[in-house]
């Protein structure tokens, strides 16, 4: 079966940004609205170049504020739509994302994260974890957040993103970074048209006489109605938590130290695990693939046998807060990270692991 | 027409019933007595009914007094964030190019927070109709100054009158967009007299007919009153509109399609 699927796929050498764009076309995206920003402008460039040859629409908007609202309009009209940006542009989209989440519109938004805060740097970062996972815009809402760690996953997660967005009528964010966007790798692309699309019955496509008007809105002025909408949303998020958690484990079976990392950091950690294992240290890696829903339960289980955790991120320590929630004080949780567009090396991670291993039975979290 | 004549004609079976179009729901307008929104809604939806395009039309409501437009308009509608109606309408129209798409926006929504979205939608020549209700005030939030507020005009945030030397000048959005090559038809109308209502309705009808041609954006400003925000009774507000608003916002076409 696996072989058959891979035979249908086309092998290409591509940048992560290009792979994501190509995958969106193959996933049957109807329209893309975006605005240039480094390090993700290749997506808009690739799509504008392809548009005359393929069956989809692209529009360069006047701002990220406009692009996310074009997404709202087009998704509300029943189309399969995507926008992409990088950190400062994603900040501008937060208003629209809150409206989209409340109006329950499916769409995919990719954030090719760069270092911040502020105008920051164009170098890769994971500093937008909080923004993606904990809200970003106003009100109680959730994005489904997928964190690729390869060019292959930059492509695959577009398919997963549309599938999840449409299944749950919820915006999906692909949280990636400038390195994954810019680097070239081999990618096996799924065939075009392999993801079915049906125009949803709630879409505003013009009201036939036979039905009531379809209204896309996030306005519920009576508190009782607004509360009912919120209860419905929370129920949906719970269903998503029950069904859609994804993670990967690497040598966790006998691990005394569990590394936790997402996206690019998880690849560096995988290398660090190999180096540590060569040095005889029992280290494993848990990599959350979905950041919402987050694999709290699995991390909690691992906390039973492991002696300590080390979370590695390209930020000041954001996902580590969720790891600590999951571990819930059972074992010490440490953090190491780089900020501002610096990527930690596997050797630096190894050094931290060795330091922990040397004192494994006597670790406390004071150095937090 | 005197009452006697009317009675006589009614007795003779003269059809005087002014019916509500199917394109309006049975929900009662929440608008203040004498407000222009009700008339503007009515002529817009009558036109959609008369053209027989209700099944092919998608409307976009703004944030402002007409935020609940979709309660009254019996067609598929989207509620946009404040100022973003033109971007939302762009999204709808780009994926449904054969539908009629309109936005219905007030002056706070369109001329302040939504300036960028409006200018760029028109500049791209989006094939949509933008209905712009200009009453020179933020009605829903309680009568604050809008970009369109006249010089010296008193509002809740210009309690001593709009001092243009430090708060700026009233913005003529319609004049601005008329200069853009993407604009196909730009007109300024009003709904304070029966004659004005007839002309405004004709303008809306023109705009929908032009939308079929795919030649660019149609922009219909409707200069309106705000009795509550202006702190006037409806008839005084219409008089004030005529004496103060219309000299600054003169009615008429600003851009009409060139004859083929």
Structure, described:
The complex is a heterodimer of chains A (about 375) and B (about 260). Chain A is of the alpha/beta class and about 375 residues long. Chain A contains 14 helices and 15 strands. Chain A has helices at about 1-10, 15-25, 40-50, 65-75, 85-90, 95-105, 130-135, 150-170, 180, 225-245, 265-280, 295-305, 320-325, 345-355; strands at about 10-15, 30-35, 55-60, 80-85, 105-115, 145, 170-175, 185-190, 215, 245-250, 255-260, 285-290, 290, 310-315, 335. In chain A, strands 3-2-4-5-7-6-13 form a seven-stranded mixed beta sheet, with helices on both faces. A five-stranded mixed beta sheet of chain A has the order 10-12-11-14-15, with helices on both faces. In chain A, α2 (about 15-25) crosses α3 (about 40-50). The model of chain A has no long low-confidence stretch (mean pLDDT about 95). Chain B has a single domain, classed as Thiamin diphosphate (ThDP)-binding fold, Pyr/PP domains (Rossmann fold, 3-Layer(aba) Sandwich). Chain B has helices at about 5-10, 35-50, 70, 85-95, 105-115, 115-125, 165, 175-180, 195-210, 225-230, 235-250; strands at about 55-60, 75-80, 100-105, 130-135, 135-140, 145, 185-190, 215-225, 250-255. Chain B is built from eleven helices and nine strands. In chain B, β1, α3 (about 70) and β2 form a beta-alpha-beta unit. In chain B, strands 2-1-3-4-8-7-9 form a seven-stranded mixed beta sheet, with helices on both faces. Chain B has a two-stranded antiparallel sheet with strand order 5-6. Chain B is globular, with a radius of gyration of 18 Å. Chains A and B meet through α4, α6 and β9 of A and β1, β2, α4 and α6 of B. β9 of chain A pairs parallel with β2 of chain B, so a sheet runs across the interface.
């Amino acid at each position: 079966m696996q072989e058959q699927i891979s035979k249908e796929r086309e092998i290409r050498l591509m940048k992560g940004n290009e792979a994501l764009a190509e995958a969106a076309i193959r996933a049957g995206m109807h329209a893309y609205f975006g605005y240039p920003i480094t390090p993700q402008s290749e997506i808009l460039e690739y799509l504008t170049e392809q548009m005359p040859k393929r069956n989809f629409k692209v529009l360069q908007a006047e701002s990220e504020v406009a692009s996310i609202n074009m997404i709202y309009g087009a998704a509300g009209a029943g189309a399969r739509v995507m926008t992409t940006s990088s950190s400062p542009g994603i900040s501008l989209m937060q208003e629209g994302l809150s409206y989209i989440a409340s109006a329950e519109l499916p769409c995919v938004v990719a954030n090719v994260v760069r270092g911040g805060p502020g105008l920051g740097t164009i170098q890769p970062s994971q500093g937008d974890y909080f923004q993606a996972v904990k809200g970003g815009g106003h009100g109680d809402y959730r994005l489904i957040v997928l964190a690729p760690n390869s060019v292959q996953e930059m492509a695959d997660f577009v398919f997963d993103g549309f599938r999840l967005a449409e299944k749950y009528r919820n915006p999906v964010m692909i949280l990636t970074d400038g390195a994954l966007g810019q680097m070239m790798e081999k990618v096996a692309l799924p065939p075009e048209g392999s993801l079915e699309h049906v125009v949803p019955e709630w879409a505003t496509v013009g009201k036939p006489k036979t039905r009531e008007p379809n209204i896309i809105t996030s306005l519920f002025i009576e508190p009782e109605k607004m509360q009912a909408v919120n209860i419905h949303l929370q129920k949906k998020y719970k269903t998503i938590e029950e069904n859609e958690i994804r993670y990967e484990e690497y040598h966790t079976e006998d691990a005394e130290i569990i590394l936790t990392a997402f996206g690019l950091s998880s690849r560096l950690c995988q290398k660090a695990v190999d180096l540590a294992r060569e040095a005889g240290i029992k280290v494993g890696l848990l990599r959350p693939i979905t950041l919402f829903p987050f694999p709290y339960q699995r991390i909690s289980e691992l906390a039973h046998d492991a002696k300590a955790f080390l979370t590695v991120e390209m930020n000041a320590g954001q996902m580590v807060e969720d790891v600590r929630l999951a571990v819930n004080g059972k074992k010490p949780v440490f953090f190491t990270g780089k900020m501002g567009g610096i990527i930690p090396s596997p050797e630096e991670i190894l050094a931290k692991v060795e330091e922990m291993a040397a004192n494994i039975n006597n670790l406390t979290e004071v150095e937090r | 027409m005197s009452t006697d004549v009317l009675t006589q004609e009614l007795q003779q079976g003269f059809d005087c019933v002014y019916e509500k179009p199917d394109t309006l729901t049975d929900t009662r307008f929440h608008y203040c007595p004498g407000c222009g929104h009700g008339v503007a809604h009515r002529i817009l939806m009558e036109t959609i009914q008369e053209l027989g395009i209700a099944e092919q039309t998608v409307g976009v409501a703004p944030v402002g007094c007409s935020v609940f437009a979709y309660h009254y308009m019996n067609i598929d509608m989207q509620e946009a964030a404040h100022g973003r109606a033109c971007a939302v309408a762009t999204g709808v129209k780009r994926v449904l190019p054969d539908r009629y798409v309109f936005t219905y926006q007030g002056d706070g929504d369109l001329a302040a927070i939504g300036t960028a979205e409006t200018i760029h939608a028109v500049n791209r020549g989006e094939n949509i109709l933008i209905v712009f209700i200009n009453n020179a005030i933020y009605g829903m939030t309680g009568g604050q100054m809008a970009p369109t507020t006249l010089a010296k005009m008193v509002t809740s945030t210009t309690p001593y009158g709009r001092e243009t030397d430090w708060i700026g000048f009233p913005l003529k959005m319609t004049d601005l967009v008329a200069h853009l090559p993407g604009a196909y038809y730009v007109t300024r109308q009003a709904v304070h007299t029966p004659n004005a209502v007839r002309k405004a309705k004709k303008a809306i009808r023109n705009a929908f007919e032009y939308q079929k041609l795919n030649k660019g954006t149609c922009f219909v400003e409707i200069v309106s009153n705000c009795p509550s925000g202006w702190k006037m009774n409806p008839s005084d507000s219409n008089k004030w509109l005529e004496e103060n608003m219309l000299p600054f916002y003169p009615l008429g076409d600003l851009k009409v399609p060139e004859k083929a």
